[in-house]
Automatic annotation (TrEMBL):
<keyword id="KW-0812">Transmembrane</keyword>
<dbReference type="InterPro" id="IPR001128">
    <property type="entry name" value="Cyt_P450"/>
</dbReference>
<dbReference type="InterPro" id="IPR036396">
    <property type="entry name" value="Cyt_P450_sf"/>
</dbReference>
<dbReference type="InterPro" id="IPR002401">
    <property type="entry name" value="Cyt_P450_E_grp-I"/>
</dbReference>
<keyword id="KW-0560">Oxidoreductase</keyword>
<feature type="binding site" description="axial binding residue">
    <location>
        <position position="455"/>
    </location>
    <ligand>
        <name>heme</name>
    </ligand>
</feature>
<dbReference type="Pfam" id="PF00067">
    <property type="entry name" value="p450"/>
</dbReference>
<dbReference type="GO" id="GO:0016705">
    <property type="term" value="F:oxidoreductase activity, acting on paired donors, with incorporation or reduction of molecular oxygen"/>
</dbReference>
<protein>
    <submittedName>
        <fullName>Phenylacetate 2-hydroxylase</fullName>
    </submittedName>
</protein>
<feature type="transmembrane region" description="Helical">
    <location>
        <begin position="12"/>
        <end position="30"/>
    </location>
</feature>
<keyword id="KW-1133">Transmembrane helix</keyword>
<keyword id="KW-0349">Heme</keyword>
<keyword id="KW-0408">Iron</keyword>
<dbReference type="GO" id="GO:0005506">
    <property type="term" value="F:iron ion binding"/>
</dbReference>
<dbReference type="GO" id="GO:0020037">
    <property type="term" value="F:heme binding"/>
</dbReference>
<keyword id="KW-0479">Metal-binding</keyword>
<comment type="similarity">
    <text>Belongs to the cytochrome P450 family.</text>
</comment>
Amino acid sequence: MDIMFLISNSTVLVLSGLFLTTTAVVYVYLRFFYVDIPKIDGIPEIPSGEILAGHLYKLGNDHATTAEAWASKYGWPVFQLRMGQRRAIMLNSFEAARDWMVKNQAATLDRPWFHTFHGVISATSAATIGTSPWDERTKKQRRVVGSFTTGPSIQKLRKVLHMETCAVISSLYYDSQKGRTDIMPHIYQERLALNLMMMFCYGTRFSSVEDPLLLQILKDGSTIASFRSTSSNAQDFIPHLRYLGENKRTATAKEVRGRRDQWLAKMLDNVRGNLNLRTGPKKSVAEMLLVDSSKDDLTELDIKTILGGLMSGGFETIYSTAIITIGMLSTLQGQPMQQEAYEDIMKVYDTPADAFNLCLTEEKSPYVMGLVKEALRFFPPLKLLPARQTYTEFVYQGATIPKGVLVYMNTQAINRDKNTYGPDADQFRPGRWVEKDHGIPPPYHFAFGAGGRMCTAVNFSNRVLYALFLRLIISFNMTENKLSPPNTDYINYKRDSTESNAIASKFKVNFTPRDTAVLEQCLEQAQDELTDLLPGVVAEPLIR
Ligand code: HEM
């Protein structure tokens, strides 16, 4: 009996010792080693982070909106928080974003490595430039991409832009029975954005909005984009989630990766197969890269990374900006904007047909240029910009910011900063950009980011949006459908607040032609000009 007592007593002692030691080890690990970077002195921290998740789950389903609410509740334009085991800084004001990204650009141009996007999605093929860390290779890729999306290269894309904007106008016109029925404009803008990028990258396009491959690419593209969102990938920040059972997100990532690899390879192979058949100047980026890769010392992986970056960078951003702007213009509030834009255009051009044709090569209407800026300011497609990571240590307002910290720009808050845009920052008002001395300094808004990793295609994107909006305004009077109007609230317009790209929820619009004779004449002329768009490419009839 005594012996039994002694044994069980010593077992209890051993077990208690083990328990205490384990608890102490776990405590020391969580307290001192779990988070990658200790609290940064001099930058306020959002209170009550959880032990493992930090503030990740407290950010809810709409990270940008919660962060904006915290910034205003505490009066902290810049704060630190914990995304699981990663320390992060959130920038919520225009001045702070300029200080970090423009004035300290050399210190903030790195990007982090994320388990799901880099470790799973990009494991079998390339990542994208926009997600690559800063090194010689990324620098080279950025240089090559920059050369495709500035100055003379944009002029070379004139015919592609001509085709895709005409395809939108023509489809809206005929599919709505010349304005007699209201239609949902989303798929037309989605196809415009995808075709622009497909033509630009691979020299090919979809001529029907019902093409099954088009629909598959759109679906896969948006799933892949969701892996870059901060709100759908807890396993990137809380490591043990990666190993707990079969992670659903990882399974989806693998499935979509398989399909994506297939269609990317098919498109590149098609270009490679046609290379020798084509004479004359190489037109698509893939052609140029395949032919000139030795000149720029590019590997097959570089080529895939560049093309992946262009496709994913350009597609959803252009689509989401285009669709919400059409929604906004169609509302009651948007009617005087359409009128003002039309009058402004007609001040610069003699006829609507001249405006229709010349907008591809020049940006002459200040009001339409203002509309593009205001659309990107008020409805930035990416609300939390792709994460940056500090590349070197630097000092910000007396606080020493160490190397390796995550940095997020909250464009939703930055782009509506009342200190920069004035008391009407919460209103959509393209006219603000036309006023002399509006006093808003470059980069004017942060939809394209800023500094050393700013979007490489700012001029290209502005030109696309300018030409699209001008052609729509010259062609139609857009009015919302009373039963299915657009939601234009800057927070609630999104179909899904957890997506990294803010796509407007569904709505219908009436596209009444301003002048059918002029419109049909413009489309006929375009059809004649576009017969030789690219050899072997299926253009589509613009007149039906
Ligand atoms: C409305 C259109 C667009 C918007 C709002 C947009 C926005 C952005 C943003 C916010 C970034 C990250 C910037 C930063 O971290 O500071 C970015 C990066 C990038 N964008 Fe765009 N983008 C657009 C169109 C395009 C297009 C059309 C292309 C390609 C032709 C493109 C290619 C890229 C690339 C390659 C990067 C990666 C840059 C890097 O990390 O070094 N973007 N874009």
